Amino acid sequence: MATVLYITAHPLDPEQSFSLAVGKEFIEAYRQANPTDEVIHLDLYKEHVPQFDADVLRGWEKLRSGSSFDQLTDGEKTKTARLEEVVDQFVAADKYVYVSPMWNFTVPPVLKAYTDATSIPGKTFRYTSSGPEGLLTGKKALHIQASGSVYSEGPLAPLEMGYSYLNKILQFYGIESMEAIFVEGTALQSQEQAPAIKEKAIAHAKELAKRF
Predict the structure, then answer these.
(1) Fewer CB within 10 Å, N- or C-terminus of the chain?
(2) Model pTM?
(3) Which domains does the chain carry?
């Protein structure tokens, strides 16, 4: 049995979001194909993922300097403990499905905060004499990304910093298998054509779910 983290980063629902609509179809098809796997949905607009603020940085520095957890302030305790939960849950999973829109060429801020929370030395990577080493080898990931224009190829490809950002982060963790489903160009098409773009992506998602 595998554990899958289904990580969504959109404040709306599947009826209003291209990325969530495709993600919903993917995860339903995945559950049908893998009924014994555990799928955990993390809605990053509902999850509490602390940002790296003064409490977090000071709390970590105290712990590194030899202070006990009980010596931290209440704010430092709450936030550092929660970040520990977030990264431990991430490390324990076998597969990751990220679902997000492209905003301003990259991922929504809640997803950036989540990748910060999972980029912890000793958990997802470590430093060695020959440089950083990822600790999550053998795992796999998928990113479902929606965008109004086409960024996966063509003249706008150099501006794409959503999928490419996640791909680099996960490679840093040692995750080499990263697939993508792009739901793109919807803002360039008429209202009649945009649903067809979504349906094509859903068909791709259902097929991919059988072998993911």
Answers:
(1) N
(2) 0.95
(3) 3-209 (3.40.50.360)
